[in-house]
Structures are given as structure tokens and as C-alpha cells.
């Protein structure tokens, strides 16, 4: 079976979903499905320096990059459209990711004309919170193009039940399927020893480490986390906050100003984007992982922290919150400073609770959020469409 994954961009600057797509493509190939990822060289800081129009390898996945012009988030690419026109009939199924971009529209229209079935995965782009941003532009796009993509899809893939529920304000186009973002168990079989991340950042020695690991973005609730940490820091002299992640929007300057105004400069570390070899060490060394997002389609960083047996404090707008709460794998809070503060202090006050949350989280990941689980569902869907 041949499957084509189509996505506007997979730069690490776009966050975890882009990385997960390359992992999914690689693992599909390992399971006997010839999967290729078609994308562009778009990057938050410019364009990726990658070979164009030739099959290359990215994190072990088969990837074809095409140039965008002009450079913008819509990622228009005439060369990608031409490649789709020439090659799409070679595939049994096309899997399209995200909504508001050129690649989704081009792939849907060309697949439709070629008689190749496609599935559409919104990756949060149908979330009402995110649709309110630039709502006039998005409403116009949906009226002209988005409805076409959704109406003609052979299936809609949501990563959580919550994402499907949040998309309920739209017509029920296409059969719905819930397939999570997976996690490769092999990467977590031999975790780094505790202390490796603290050695890389000596200021963390003997500290109670609160870890935020995600893009530095307005969506992520940092305007809640900084004042919440100010209250935590007043009661816990050893508490230290690590903010790790790329800052493609320039939002980090505003966050740094809040930190300075709160008198927390020596209690907060801006770690930037952590290299892959230190990422698991960061989870292992933290005492609590915090993600108070206003909207989070899935939250792969949450399952990563759970796989490292770390207690998590997440907002009720992280779409994994229902599963985390049901498994007693973390503390789910509201998007208020007071609630975030209470969630963090509850974990710091009770080491036994922190340990139980970590163990429950690990068990939840093994049960529901490995690539083995996700790809079993995805392969079944592909097989049904191929018929």
C-alpha cells in the first residue's frame, strides 16, 4: 500500500505535531506501508535549507520538500501542486494535515479529480478558540475552500474525543475517527539518569524544577504561568521555573518583561529550544510539568512527560485533559492564575501524590498513546479506504 502524507511544513519551529508527522511516516514504512511525506521548506524564521524536489530523509522518514513563494504561513507552492498533479495517482490513500494552507486545498482538489480517496486531519484547526483568530479571513476561506476539503474527505481524523467535540459546531462532514498522536516506546526504554539536565543548567542544582516545554506562544498560557509562579516562588524558596521552547513569534520578550517585573529573573531559566539529546533529561529532572494552554489540540509534550513518570499540571483546554483526569495521571486546572497556582502547589506539597500521578501517567501512555496503538487504527482506516 502507498500512502501520501501532505503537510504545509515540518520545521521544528512549528512545534511537536510537525515532528510527530515524520515519526508517523517512518513507522508506517517500518510496518510495511510505503509512506511518503510531501511538504514545503517553510520555516518561522525563513526557509529551511533542504534539497528541493527530491526524495530525502528526515528523522528516518521519506520526505519530499518543495519551495514556497512568496513566503508566508499559507505556504503557496506551485512546484508542490505540479508534483501532486504528476504523482498522486500512484498512491492508494492521501492523508492531508491542517486546513488553512495551500497544500491542503491542492491535495484535496487533485486527489478528488484523480479519484484517490483522502482523509483530512485538522490538528486543531477546527477548534473554536483558534478559529476566532483572524476570523474574517478564516470564515471566508472556509466558505470558498475549507468546506470543499471537508465535504469530499473520506474520513476526518481527530486526535482526541475533545477535539471531535469542539468541532461539533461545524456540519458533520465525513466519518469521524479518533486516532491519537503516538509515542515511540523505544525512545523511553532507557531514560537518562536523574541529574543530566541539571548538570547542563547548574543553576537547577538542588531546586524544585517546574518545567514548561512547548512553543513560547500566546496560546500556551504563559500569562497565567508567570504570575502563578510568583505565588509559588514566595512559598517555595527552592522552586525554579524552566521555560523551554522555540520563540518563532518574538513573544519571549514580553514574557521576559513579566518575569523581570515580578522580580523572578534569578528564579526563571529561559532554556530556548532544547536539543533532542537533552529533551528526555529535562522531563526526568523536573518535579512537575506545567502546560496551562488556552487551546491545545493534543499536547504530545504531555504524553512525553507522562512516559517519563512525571506529574503534570495541565489546563482544561488541553484536549488530553479528560483522559488524564480519568486515569488520575495529573492535575487538571482552569485557565486562571489561582487555579494554576493551586495545581502546582498541590503537587509540590505532596510527594506521594506526585509519585502516584507519575505511575498512573506511565500506565495511561502504555495503554492508549503509543504508536503501536495509533498505527493499528490508522492502518485499518487506510485499508478500508483502499477497498
How would you characterize this protein structure?
The protein is an alpha/beta fold. The chain has two domains: 2-182 and 370-386, Rossmann fold; 187-368, Rossmann fold, CATH 3.40.50.2000. Helix content is 43%, strand content 19%. The protein has 15 helices and 16 strands. It has helices spanning 16-30, 78-87, 102-114, 128-131, 135-151, 161-166, 196-200, 222-235, 252-261, 276-285, 300-307, 321-326, 337-349, 351-368, 371-386; strands at residues 2-9, 34-40, 42-43, 46-47, 55-58, 61-66, 93-97, 118-121, 155-158, 176-178, 208-213, 239-244, 268-272, 288-291, 312-315, 330-333. The strands form three sheets. Strands 5-6-2-1-7-8-9-10 form an eight-stranded mixed sheet. Strands 13-12-11-14-15-16 form a six-stranded parallel sheet, sandwiched between helices. The chain has a two-stranded antiparallel ribbon with strand order 3-4. Helix 2 runs parallel beside helix 3, helix 3 (102-114) packs parallel to helix 5 and helix 8 crosses helix 13 (337-349). The longest helix is centred in the C-terminal third of the chain and has 18 residues, at 351-368. It is globular and about 65 Å long. 47% of the residues are buried. The model has no long low-confidence stretch (mean pLDDT 92).
Amino acid at each position: 500500500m502507498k500512502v501520501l502524507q501532505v503537510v504545509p511544513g515540518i520545521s521544528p519551529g512549528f512545534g511537536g505535531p510537525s515532528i510527530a508527522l515524520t515519526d508517523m511516516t517512518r513507522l508506517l514504512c517500518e510496518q510495511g506501508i510505503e509512506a511518503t511525506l510531501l511538504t514545503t521548506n517553510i520555516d518561522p524564521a525563513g526557509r529551511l535549507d533542504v534539497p528541493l524536489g527530491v526524495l530525502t530523509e528526515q528523522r528516518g522518514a521519506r520526505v519530499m520538500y518543495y519551495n514556497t513563494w512568496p513566503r508566508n504561513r499559507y505556504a503557496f507552492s506551485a512546484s508542490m501542486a505540479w508534483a501532486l498533479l504528476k504523482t498522486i495517482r500512484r498512491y492508494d490513500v492521501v492523508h492531508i494535515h491542517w486546513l488553512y494552507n495551500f497544500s491542503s486545498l491542492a491535495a484535496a482538489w487533485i486527489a478528488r479529480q484523480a479519484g484517490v480517496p483522502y482523509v483530512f486531519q485538522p490538528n486543531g484547526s477546527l477548534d473554536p478558540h483558534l478559529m476566532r483568530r483572524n476570523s474574517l479571513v478564516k470564515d471566508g476561506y472556509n466558505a470558498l475552500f475549507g468546506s470543499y476539503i471537508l465535504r469530499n474527505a473520506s474520513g476526518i481524523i481527530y486526535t482526541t474525543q475533545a477535539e471531535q467535540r469542539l468541532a461539533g459546531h461545524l456540519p458533520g462532514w465525513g466519518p469521524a475517527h479518533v486516532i491519537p498522536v503516538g509515542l515511540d516506546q523505544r525512545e523511553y526504554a532507557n531514560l537518562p539518569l536523574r541529574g543530566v539536565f541539571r548538570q547542563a543548567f547548574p543553576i537547577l542544582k538542588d531546586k524544585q524544577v517546574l518545567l514548561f516545554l512547548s512553543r513560547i506562544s500566546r496560546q500556551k498560557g504563559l500569562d497565567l504561568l508567570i504570575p502563578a509562579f510568583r505565588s509559588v516562588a514566595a512559598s517555595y524558596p527552592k522552586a525554579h521555573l524552566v521555560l523551554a521552547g522555540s520563540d518563532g513569534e518574538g513573544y519571549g520578550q514580553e514574557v521576559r518583561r513579566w518575569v523581570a517585573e515580578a522580580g523572578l529573573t534569578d528564579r526563571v531559566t529561559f532554556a530556548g529550544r532544547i536539543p533532542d539529546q537533552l529533551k528526555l533529561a529535562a522531563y526526568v529532572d523536573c518535579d512537575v510539568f506545567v502546560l496551562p494552554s488556552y487551546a491545545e489540540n493534543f499536547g504530545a509534550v504531555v504524553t512525553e512527560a507522562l512516559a517519563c513518570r512525571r506529574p503534570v499540571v495541565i489546563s482544561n483546554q488541553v484536549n488530553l485533559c479528560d483522559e488524564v483526569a480519568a486515569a488520575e495521571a495529573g492535575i487538571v486546572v482552569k485557565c486562571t492564575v489561582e487555579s494554576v497556582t493551586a495545581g502546582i502547589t498541590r503537587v509540590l506539597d505532596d510527594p506521594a501524590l506526585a509519585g502516584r500521578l507519575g505511575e498512573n501517567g506511565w500506565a495511561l501512555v502504555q495503554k492508549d498513546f503509543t504508536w503501536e496503538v495509533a498505527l493499528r487504527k490508522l492502518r485499518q482506516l487506510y485499508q478500508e479506504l483502499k477497498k
